[in-house]
Amino acid sequence: MSTKVGKMVPPRQRRWMQAIQKRVGVTTEAIGSIKGIKMTGLTDKISEQIQGLREFEMEESKRFRRVQIMNILLGSSPCPSPKARGRALLRPNRPVPQHYDTGGDIRSVRDRSEDQRQQ
Questions:
Q1: Alpha-carbon torsion angle 67, 69, 70, 74, nearest 10
Q2: Which of 18, 19, 78, 80 could form a disulfide with 57 if both were Cys (CB 3.0 to 4.6 A apart)?
Q3: Does the model's pTM come out above 0.70?
Q4: Would you state the pLDDT for residue 113?
């Protein structure tokens, strides 16, 4: 499963980079032609176009990041098998604890280290 997800990363990254290049190119052209844009009253239209390109770029980056995170989690997960890791990641609507008390964990580590020093 990790290899399947891994193969999805480069195409998504490529689309994201292309979206960045397109937005930067249009912005550069607009800045170079700013005098003409202002004279013709197209400032709002160009601003809307660049904003649309920004939003498209962000959507592409989200797609890339989701797959990249899934790939990283699949590769570093301590689950015993790739299928189990995939099921764990794809399980819908798992309840998320609102508060996790780490105090007990810290106390148990401290108690163990004190026990080791006493021995």
A1: 140
A2: 19
A3: no
A4: 57
